[in-house]
Design brief:
It is built from 28 helices and three strands. With 605 residues, it is an all-alpha fold.
Length: 605
Amino acid sequence: MTPEDCMCLVKERQPEKEVDENGGLGPAHDGDEGERVDGSNHLFLREAPILTEESRISKDYSCQDKKVGAREELVLRKDMCKQGTKLSRRDRVELGCRFQRAVSSCDWELAWNLLVLAKAQALNDVLCVALDSVWFLTTHEELDGITGLIKKIIGDGANDFTRAILRTSFLASCVSACQSKMMNLTDAVGVTTQRLHERLQECQGDEVLKVAASTKVQKFTEWALKCIRFHSHYQENRGRRRRNQSTIVEVQLQLSAFKTFLELAGDHLTGKDFTEAFDAACFPVALFSSSFDPGWASGISAIAVQGLLGMLVEGGADNVNQCFLEASRFGSTELVRILLQIAQRNSLDIDVDLALVFASHYCKIRTMECLVEEGNAANLLGPLVRASERGCMQVVQWFVNQGCGDMDLCLALIAATSSSHLGVSAYLLSQIPHHVLSAVSIEILKTVSERSRGSLDGVAFLLCNDFLGDPTATYAVADSIASSNDEVVAPELRAFLKEHWSEDAFAEGLSSGQDHYVNFMRILQRGGSPICLMDLPPPLVTAIVYKPLYRECTEAGGKLLPQKLRGKLVEAASRLGGRQVDNDSPAKELLAILEHHLPRHFLPL
């Protein structure tokens, strides 16, 4: 799935869970296979987190831990056996909750006894519960206990390995994400909601489906956070205060237990299963990435995710590049960094240059830095040109600071100017040496004209801003194109330059200025107006004659005036100054002559 398909479909694949009076969810029931949010290409499971009313644990998990006694276990077994070998939905909920508490409290004897009651789908339920507990292991004793349970459960007939690996991959990623110093369980759901909203806003798709996807992902995340709270609660009750981060030894134990599960599952897990599990593991890290503290990806908290993803790749996950591109697009820098490391260790091909295109398109500066500095992205031209076309000044400046070549900047200048992002054009002009611009000046003007879709504003902007840094050279290149017979030059460009920026246009401007002066003098001498213009104050007469020309020149702006307008200004300045001014005089000096003879209240403040 390409990044453009980020939100396409929300597909239901299973019925809703029971919700108890305390707000907890009972274990999964028959037919519980999972559901996919196809927009982000991740498959998640609507799973039973942990609690029902029978568990006697409130929503805030503040109750005391209570083991199920042998007598209570016998009563439970008797009640369940009344139903025969097939457990009812309520029985499965009850069994799953008791097994969850037994595993979390490391009561291995009770957990083994409860397995006697697990049949058919109930075995798949307890397999998921046992596998989820892997990510909270802290000792070798716990490792032996949980791996022994997993072996027993699989040996007894549990076979829904797809559901187990998808669910636990998502949970493992959430556990590592929540160990960031800048994250806590209270904020996690809010962060997820905000980040998912931002991500969906950047995607094409039906708004109803976006809302549905957001709701489901939030529900999955809430499930994972309940699991984390639940296990933390039991660890505290056993006198083991949960640290903000796991130690390297604990992470190794957790990965060892997960590897044991993969070995036991064997060929029952397909390449597709590993691929979807890889998606599920990447998704929380991508969402939480903006809330990670610096260095998270190189710390112990990320080792579990790196190890998990590495084992999934070894198992057959083939979507590393796809997840890498999506992470780059959405600015999930920490995930990008992890996937770079995984690709390097496993000798996988990932498209770093395309990832840079995605990151720059969405202005993800930190991700761009990571791709260039750690991913060795080398093709800066494409992203630079695209950023210039969009007028993204921040990204353009970043690429310029990376040391892009002069010709690359010329191409970016063409892109920005032809797209009418003149602020970016002005910035790029200041970064390109004038001798480089002079060498390709004709091609720049011709290309801007061709790509401007009928508008010549970009050409006028370059000329008015003296893009060659030398008025004589700038006027000369414009006159060269105007007088050219080259068929490659667009007729519209040639006509525009001939009319406004050529030497002929300057001569026409001088002639027009002279005619204007002659006409005004005829009015003074022969006019029949009752108002005698000769009796008006000289500044006011000057305003009548040249105020329109002055306004036209000031509105043109820029460093240079079009040749035709400059010719009129030279004629006016010569008349007012009482001497012939130099034809090459700067427009600023010529305007100063006009301003000197105009009334003050006619001048801009």
